Amino acid sequence: MGVGKPQLTPSDLIGSFTTRRGKRVEHIGVGEIVLLVFPPQTFMELVKAIGARLSQLWLYGESRPLYNGELAGRKITLFSPDIGPQPQSCIWKSLSHAVPGLRGKLVPLINSLIPVLTLILTAVCPLKLGFASFSFPYKTAISEVIGVVSAAGYRGLEINAWNGYATNIVKLDHRDWARIREATEAAGLEISALGCDASYIKPDEASRRESVARAMKTVDVASDLGVRVVDTFSGAVPEQMPGEKAWPILIRSISEVAAHAAERDVRIAFEAHVGMPVDSPEALERLLAEVSSEYLAVNLDASHFSIRGWDVTAIARRLGRLIAHSHVKDTRGSFPDFRFLIPGEGDFPFEEFLSALAGTGYNGFVTAEISVMRSRLPGYDAAEAARMAYRRVVGACRAVGLQLG
Fold first, then answer.
1. Helix ranges, 6-56 (H)
2. Residue 291: exposed, middle, or buried by beta-carbon count in 10 A (0-12, 13-18, 19+)?
3. Among residues 126, 138, 13, which one has the least CA distance to residue 79?
4. HSE, side-chain direction, 13 A CA sphere, residue 296
5. Nearest CA among 314, 305, 311 for reference residue 338
6. What is the pTM of this model?
7. Sequential DSSP letters for 371-383
């Protein structure tokens, strides 16, 4: 499609934005056009529609370049920051000078271009596969966990620092954690994240502060280990607490944890969990907007959406650049009559989900996790579960042409 030289000036574009996370996104300079793209998958649609030449692809995080190329001889940079819906209408205004009728041209391109986007993104930034120590019975020695996960072929290990586990965050000191890091490295594994079980909605201030302190300690250990992700969730609302009082307590607690995480350069990856106040994409987006910290992100465990009958591929694309970590497990049935299962035992759409996740530009860990719903059943074997999960996830990636790093 031929495109004439666009007569775009800074006044045709948006001068700057304040994002929901408080960042400013400015024009880069004379002769360089900045387009703010929302949602992330709009990237390939725009590139195709305006005939830009793909020269470089950068995928380093929010408010950083998603695409660097040219439009009719002029440099173009596409951003995909977390900024809400406003940029979309401004994109139409800006590009209408260059491509009349672009709005109508994009609609039929959406479905056909998503596979192209996935192909390019995964070639540059392959997913990494990990396993969660949460999948092992309580008190299993971390040395055994490391051995099993390494032997199964995984690249990463998420270490569960919950109460009751051998790696309980309050039971180990810095020397213990240093030995764990040495053991994982010797086994060829990367510690992908630490899991934190702090429950942030408490009926009294002393209990709330104790939970926040536990989360902060997990952040401190992660930072000392060079681990950049701590994943967590809200915890249930106490029975005696009215629902409307729970949310402000959660916001206050997570704001404190996120502020501490910012000081230690660790991201809090928050999981939406069935039966908890944050149990949907909308609740995740609300939480991130109200806390408004670059260090609060999403741990996408789409199994909690699958059992609700929601489209997990659409949710992956929707949350896109907010994702800092991901869990996968299999499912069968629908809420409330459902089961979480070992990958390979149920009907979770792994191929479609992983393809959509990779298509957002996410290049972190996909961590296989076995719920206690399954691990507490008679005859459960964590080593066999790890191997089965590995085969299922790797098989799904290969089936849709995804690379694993």
1. 42-50
2. buried
3. 13
4. 25
5. 305
6. 0.72
7. -HHHHTSTT--HH
**Tokens at residue 80, please?**
């995909």
DSSP secondary structure of 263-283? HHT-EEEEEP-TTSS--SHHH
What are the residue ranges spanned by the domains of the chain? 16-112, 125-399
pLDDT in 10s for each residue of the chain, 405 residues:
333 333 333 333 333 333 333 333 333 333 333 444 434 444 444 444 443 333 332 222 233 334 444 433 444 444 443 333 333 333 333 333 334 444 444 434 444 444 454 455 444 457 899 999 999 999 999 999 999 999 999 999 999 999 999 999 999 999 999 999 999 999 999 999 999 998 999 999 999 999 999 999 999 999 999 999 999 999 999 988 887 899 999 999 999 999 999 999 999 999 999 999 999 999 999 999 999 999 999 999 999 999 999 999 999 999 988 999 999 999 999 999 999 999 999 999 999 999 999 888 888 999 999 999 999 999 999 999 999 999 999 999 999 888 787
Question: Rounded to 5, what percent of the chain is helix, strand, coil?
Answer: 40, 20, 40
Burial letters 226-249, b for 16+ CB under 10 A, else e: ebbbbbbbbbebbeeeeeeebbeb
C-alpha 336/C-alpha 197 separation (Å) is 23
Report the top-level CATH class of 125-399: alpha beta
Residues 6 or more apart whose Cβ sits within 8 Å of residue 228: 222, 265, 266, 267
